[in-house]
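Q: How would the structure tokens look for this protein?
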Amino acid sequence: MKMTRNQQKSIPMDQVIIMAMEHLYHTIRSLLWEHAKKEQLSPIQIQMLVYLSGRTTRASTVSEIARQFNLTPATTSDALRVLTRKGLVKKSIDKADKRIVHLSLTPEGNHLTGILSQWTNPILEELQHFSRENREMVLIFFLKFLENLRKKNILKELHICFSCAYFRPDKTADSGYCILRNLSLKNTDIQLNCSNYVSSPDV
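A: Here is the predicted structure in token form.
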């Protein structure tokens, strides 16, 4: 017997959440592709540029970027080689260990990143239609959800306050305390990809 529309089973809420995140992911990838084609770069190369633009206090290494984007060192090196050839990324040898190469943006890379960062504008505009309270709830959910995935090693690399060497639990604050900035952190103060992030050996 064929089920009517009203008799069909609804999809469980948690599964709908996963489906919604998948739709959002594909939308973000589509917007990124549009900008990538204009600049003759791949989406991952654009993401690397944006990532490097946030590392204002220290340069990144190939291995760090590979972990951040869950890529092999070889694939990461190939992508960075193109960015270096285009004059967007520069390399510098570590003074203490000459085997380590640090990567940072050139002035041209910084300029282009400012343009490329606009690819998120359509999504940012839609977010403004929701109240700050709604946006804070979404932010807190995603940050805690990502942190749980990191703890279970499902998410390999996550530069979040909770796993930073400068983070301390603090019962007097919503989330904790940053000893670098000397700041009590509310849930909405928790950062992703902070330029001061240093991985804690205890997490």
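The domain at 15-120 is CATH 1.10.10.10 (Arc Repressor Mutant, subunit A).

The mean pLDDT is 86.

Upvote if useful.
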